[in-house]
Amino acid sequence: MEEVVVLIVGAGPAGLATAACLSQLSIPYVIVERESCSASLWRNRAYDRLKLHLAKEFCELPHMSYPLDAPTYIPKNQFVKYLDDYIERFNIQPKYLTVVESSTYDNDGKFWSVMVRDMTRCVVVNYMAKFLVVASGENSAVNIPMFRGQETFPGVAIHSSSYKSGGSYSGRNVLVIGSGNSGMEIAYDLATHGANTSLVIRSPIHVMTKELIWLGMTLAHHLPLNIVDHLLVMMADFVFGNLSKHGIMRPKKGPLVLKLETGRSAVIDVGTVGLIKKGTIKVQGRVTKIKGKTIEFQGGNEASFDAIVFATGYKSTATMWLKNCESMLNSDGLPNKKFPNHWKGENGLYCAGLARMGLACIAMDAKNIANDIKSNLDSMSMSG
Ligand SMILES: Cc1cc2nc3c(=O)[nH]c(=O)nc-3n(C[C@H](O)[C@H](O)[C@H](O)COP(=O)(O)OP(=O)(O)OC[C@H]3O[C@@H](n4cnc5c(N)ncnc54)[C@H](O)[C@@H]3O)c2cc1C
Ligand SMILES: *[C@@H]1O[C@H](CO)[C@@H](O)[C@H](O)[C@H]1NC(C)=O
Ligand SMILES: *[C@@H]1O[C@H](CO)[C@@H](O)[C@H](O)[C@H]1NC(C)=O
């Protein structure tokens, strides 16, 4: 048994930001991470050409800016370097290869009892934590739907988190399933590496440019979201034209409102739309059936494929190990209160990075959590 004031689960950007904010307030904490490194999503589960989708001013963690000469859209490796510098600056020492297996609230003792497996020493440690911060990520496990006949597909089928580059797919027929930012960008990467690429777009999406998103996020500080959305859609239609004949429909709600209400992001075009318009990338409706190499789509189209990339997203796994969290998380392991009240549960339970609002929100969560813990500790020490 080990007593700690704060236990942070996960050493991705959210856990690191929370650790930094706590140390600025001289609050002791322990941070545990199941992988052998911090930010494994960025180091090991992201494709080569990935850059931050948002301009750097929206992607800073608390108390440390990017170097002045950093580009507006930070490439993956530079973001990882920033995190390494961040870890050093705030002397964060995650316990790596340490998996949280279960956690319950002890009502008598008023602490969180957290069972943690230390895989290097092959022991289980029981932490008693006054405060518990869930920073295990919205991307903790891959989400892969099962299609009828999927087991008969003889080719390579991978999740986008295992995709690095299109180099090895040249000349092959590849299907990308999913049209979020990852799916759209991976389709572009495949096509530019000479793969015969098709893309499944099931639901309506907002396609934007990164400049439009920057403008929208900047204007949103001064104007109501629905007005900014209206402006964004008008400008996007001007830039891209009406994409419905290419199989890309717009949602009824505007891009910023949709993000706030559902967490679904607008897609930031990296050149995919141009290739769709040229016919280089072929758009298909949802998959109805897989039979060997042949994949059938809604509307009756079918084609033969050598490989599938599932860009079908991720899920949170917090509810698999965290009990007594109903005050904060729903059964999907995501906050049940709406932004900006999502980060706090009862009995010293918090979450950072689960609001589906990116790094800017992660920075806010971390600051809110550290300040809230500080005021709790202050009032405890006054009353005791
Ligand atoms: C391809 C891609 C591009 C993105 N681009 C952007 C962008 O440009 N801008 C932006 O703002 N956001 C972006 N995001 C969103 C992204 O989710 C955040 O940027 C960020 O990585 C989330 O940080 P996090 O710390 O919440 O989660 P993660 O980075 O997923 O970290 C969570 C950590 O918790 C660990 N963990 C999980 N379960 C346990 C357990 N039981 N025990 C111990 N450790 C555990 C995991 O191993 C992981 O290291 C992108 C996401 C993806 C997938
Ligand atoms: C490319 O893919 C499409 C369908 O997705 C298919 O009709 C076409 O024959 C393929 N081209 C080649 C050269 O294989
Ligand atoms: C886009 O084109 C489709 C038909 O191709 C049409 O039904 C729709 O109204 C158009 N949308 C706009 C905003 O012009």
UniProtKB/TrEMBL annotation:
<dbReference type="GO" id="GO:0103075">
    <property type="term" value="F:indole-3-pyruvate monooxygenase activity"/>
</dbReference>
<keyword id="KW-0560">Oxidoreductase</keyword>
<dbReference type="InterPro" id="IPR000960">
    <property type="entry name" value="Flavin_mOase"/>
</dbReference>
<dbReference type="InterPro" id="IPR036188">
    <property type="entry name" value="FAD/NAD-bd_sf"/>
</dbReference>
<dbReference type="GO" id="GO:0050660">
    <property type="term" value="F:flavin adenine dinucleotide binding"/>
</dbReference>
<dbReference type="Pfam" id="PF13738">
    <property type="entry name" value="Pyr_redox_3"/>
</dbReference>
<comment type="similarity">
    <text>Belongs to the FMO family.</text>
</comment>
<protein>
    <recommendedName>
        <fullName>indole-3-pyruvate monooxygenase</fullName>
        <ecNumber>1.14.13.168</ecNumber>
    </recommendedName>
</protein>
<dbReference type="GO" id="GO:0004497">
    <property type="term" value="F:monooxygenase activity"/>
</dbReference>
<dbReference type="GO" id="GO:0050661">
    <property type="term" value="F:NADP binding"/>
</dbReference>
<dbReference type="InterPro" id="IPR050982">
    <property type="entry name" value="Auxin_biosynth/cation_transpt"/>
</dbReference>
